[in-house]
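Hi support team,

I'm filing this because I wasn't sure whether my run with FE3-S4 cluster finished correctly. The job status page said complete, but I'd like someone to confirm that the output block is well-formed before I use it downstream. Pasting the exact inputs I used:
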Amino acid sequence: MADTQAVSFYRVYVWQVPVRLYHWLNAICVLVLIVTGFLIGKPLAIIYSTEAYQQYWFGTVRFIHFVTAFIFFFNFLIRIYWGFVGNKYARWNNFIPFKKAHFEEIKEVLKVDILQSKAQGIISIGHNMLAGVTYFLSFLVFLFQVCTGFALYSSMSGSFLPKLFAWVIPAMGGDFAVRQWHHIFMWFFVVFTIIHVYLVFYHDYVEGRGTTSSMVGGWKFEREDVLK
Amino acid sequence: MVKKLPSIWEAMQTKGYSRRDFMRFCSMAAAVAGVKVSGMASVVHAFEKKPRPPVVWLHFQECTCCSESFIRSSHPIVSDVVFDYLSLDYTETLQAAAGHQAEKCLHDTMKNNAGKYILLVEGSVPMKDDGVYCTIGGRSAEDILKEAAKDAAAVIAWGSCASNGCIQAANPNPTNATPIHKIISKPVINVPGCPPIGDVMTAVITHVLVFGKIPDLDGQGRPKEFYGRRVHDTCYRRPYYDAGMFVEAWDDDKARKGYCLYKMGCRGPVTYNACSVTRWNEGTSYPIQSGHGCIGCSENGFWDNGPFYRHLASFPGFGIETTADTVGTVVGVAAAAGVTAHAVTTHIRKKKIVNDRIERSVTDREPKKEGGEE
Amino acid sequence: MARIVVDPITRIEGHLRIEAVVENGKISEAYSSGTMIRGFEKILKGRDPRDAWAFTERACGVCTTVHALASVRTVEDALKISVPKNAELIRNLMFCAQYCQDHVVHFYHLHALDWVDVVSALSADPKETSRIARSISKWPKTSPGYFSDIQQRVKTFVESGQLGIFANGYWGHSAYKLPAEINLLAVAHYLEALEWQKEIVKIHAIFGGKNPHPNYLVGGVPCSINLEEVNAINSERLNHVLKLIKDAMAFVEQVYIPDLMAIAGYYKDWAAVGGGLENYLSYGDLPTQGYNQPDSFKFPRGAILNRNLNEVHDVNGKDSEEIKEYIAHSWYKYAGGDKTGLHPWDGETEFNHTGPKPPYDFLDIDGKYSWIKTPRWRGNPMEVGPLARLLVGYASGSDEVKDVIHEAIHALQVPVTALFSTLGRTAARGLETRLVARWMKGFYDDLLANIKNGDTRTFNDERWEPDTWPKTAEGVGLTEAPRGALAHWIRIKDKVIDNYQLVVPSTWNASPKDHNGKRSAYEESLVGTPVANEDAPIEILRTVHSFDPCIACAVH
Ligand code: HEM
Ligand code: HEM
Ligand code: NFV
Ligand code: SF4
Ligand code: SF4
Ligand code: F3S
Ligand SMILES: [Mg+2]
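And here is everything the job wrote out:
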């Protein structure tokens, strides 16, 4: 314990500004979309007036959902773009496993983080591969929510963006099915957020390299041997 | 003394349409029917010379409710349709002839008016087991449909049965009931609903005959004129939806005030139909106006979107009481529990983990230059 | 010995095929086959019992609502729910409206062309038609000019050379007996009835949102009553209902019944043809003190055997010895074998098509030959329908029923036994429509009185939520559909449908023979029917149509 200071850590600039901005904007949007979406699916019994024209809370909830959905969508587009031009930690190859080593890493991380059957494994600087794959998965679900959400929105909107997604409705067998799936995948985000936030804290707790704050300031601490 | 009935062309002339309009109408009709340009002449001829276009109405797997709805049309009333607008040469529900005399009506029309008759289909076609689940005059529905569709000038699918299979196609679809657009290769005008509104049915026909063009169709072959909007978009209870004022239980004080039926399972937000505007039975009412939610009867596969009194369908395999929210809550709680358990174990093991790390760090230690900034 | 085939039987609901053996100008054997199936009983498994009404209602769009009614009753019986008074009255009003519409359409649009020669109407003298019309009814549309306009319209139609729905009819057949003037009268009323039938169903639209296929609700009715609200059943809606009822009473009394009597007078020979079975079954309906008080029904419940009108047997849908379905000649298989009969709670629906495959010329009459199962009551084939209802009412001592019957047989100068016939069946339908139209007004008055007393409840919520249900439950819902005794049976397990069986009026009447070779109603009544011209078997249509077949119902 006394030798803690003997290890030398280096500051690494991992998350660039666009990534961090994207991340927090996205986190807020997702939380808002979950809350408003859940309310749309299961509205509370709130009646505080006698006539419909005197209250509009449900319309407001829906309005917030739609506005947030647009922010969420464009923010997501920026992240997709940044996946091609950002630093090496932001690029798409961090997300999609294609080498044998990637799969090895996933196995390793599973053993260390989840099963805790092994104490020490590979430490990545950006995402570990498992996290990367999870984020990739969540990007796909973002895309799915965007497609289903805008498809649903297309029937209440005359503007061109939602109309681009109108084809999704017949392809998925009608509005009911689309809504149902859109609703089901809300739960993906609920579960994702629980696990994701926990794991961020977990890594910070056991590795002590500032994982949590890295999404704020961009820097992580990294052991020099890992840096090569 | 005997006044000849006006042909379609004559009728259009009196309404001020030009010959060009008429030709355009014929080419539209032909285009929808998939008639090649060379076949155009006969379509023009059909509507020009024949006083009333011949119509064949086939019945397959159905409940005849579409026919019933058709005769509920109030404008035009159905006797005008049958006597003045068209020549209903075959329809098992109303025609005088039976047995082989009826079959002769069908064959005569197909033979004498090849390429000129309009085919209306009510009901789905069972495609399983060589079609033994629906035979007429000893022939399978599939057989009859294919023959009748071959030379039809236009094909209209009445109701949800013919447009998307309806109830008999609901899980497990015991007879492989199939909508007609999946069986014939021609374009089909789908007029879904269980049944469609009678005035919508006659309007679709008159749209073609009087205005001289096939109505604009959406991606699912439905006339946009009647299926372009959701029931919800023009529902008169919509202000209550936006206000968040919902019926919470049947016949509660909110139901008695006519609040929105969304929480009682109303499918209006996901259903494309004219009910909330055209309404039923000469504008008398529509399901929501009479206190029951829309069950989505014009939507593909709506029977399997139950239970009807829930906003969400039941999650397949878990019984009717389980919805995505129940499953989601269970998974969410499980995730939270898992995370908590993981956190506890981690904390207990932390000491060992940290020591391990420190040890490794110390033994591996060797200074390196700074880097990594990009 | 010729076997003639009539397929499709038209002017009915559904796909019915009759094969008949004609010997010496008479039918000696007949086979009735339902040739289309959708598989409702399979589809209903595993679903929410509260949704079942919507599914079963789609068994038929012609008798729309009756399956919905049977279904909600079935579920209410299983879950022990009793519905509020208003709900019962509203259901009764919808029931009556259905009878009026369905019976009038049957008479004018499905059955009339068997008796009325449209072409002959062209040679009628409109003045004489006018005179006849005025002599039998006070209906206002009876001027000579009115009838000559109608005649002109038919003439123009016929001369166009496009006969449409009238093409290839048996026009000119020697079996048509009406004078040209009455044919013209009937044609005029064919058109009027077509216009009127769309009015009466507005009662369904008011309470159930639409017709065909209005909405029902387990535990009551979906429409709420609120006299202080435009958004509910209020005075305007009730006034609309009243107007429709009054119009219906006028149409039935002044058009349907006079026409029926006028036409029947020319076809009294058909009072000796097509009697068929001698057993009649009615579940009874139109409760006035709740569905669980059959004694209070307007149409009484009971069974008559061997035309013995002095004895009415009790009928119990829950007794496993009473109603059973057989499949000896139907395209199904039972786990217990082809000779067994199953009470509907234990009913099985397993397809077993044994041929012939389409295209075919004849059915395999010695084997299975129909998609319709064969129901029996205590082993007996039973006729169901308007005639059965009136006979059970008559035998049970209902004065209202007796009065309409006596009035009619007196006017026609025929004995009561004339009812046991093709003509009797057709007449019974009209006579009960008279009763139903009057009762409808009574139910309307009761509804108003109840609302006036301050009772506006339309729904009982005690057992709405599935967590209030027992782990298993079973129920039966009995009703009288226009075509006769209709019942649904349900078994609920773990809050979903475990088994759901429908035994429908046309199942009783149109079924094939049973395991003992006994015929059901259609087949039995066809035997003995004369056929003058095997190529134009109008007589077969007359007798079969007198039952008002509905084969989508029968098979489901
Ligand atoms: C993380 C992303 C999202 C989540 C978790 C989410 C969640 C939800 C939920 C739970 C519902 C209620 C569904 C129901 O039960 O009927 C809903 C409705 C809806 N969402 Fe989203 N949503 C997301 C993204 C989007 C996006 C990107 C759009 C695009 C416009 C969108 C548009 C809609 C629309 C149009 C509705 C239907 C609202 C209505 O008809 O009143 N959503 N959403
Ligand atoms: C709704 C809530 C959240 C969502 C949807 C979310 C989503 C994501 C996504 C998509 C990434 C990948 C970023 C990229 O590479 O572009 C990510 C990474 C990250 N997030 Fe979140 N996040 C949420 C909340 C949080 C919170 C509350 C924290 C911390 C306090 C956090 C910390 C991080 C960190 C540190 C990373 C990088 C992790 C790594 O790869 O090691 N996130 N998050
Ligand atoms: N049979 C029959 Fe129905 C009736 N009436 C049903 O219960 O017609 Ni479609
Ligand atoms: S679509 Fe519905 S209403 Fe039309 S025939 Fe089919 S089941 Fe009946
Ligand atoms: S009642 Fe149904 S269709 Fe009407 S506003 Fe409410 S949810 Fe929409
Ligand atoms: S149930 Fe059908 S009738 Fe209209 S309101 Fe809904 S589409
Ligand atoms: Mg059955």
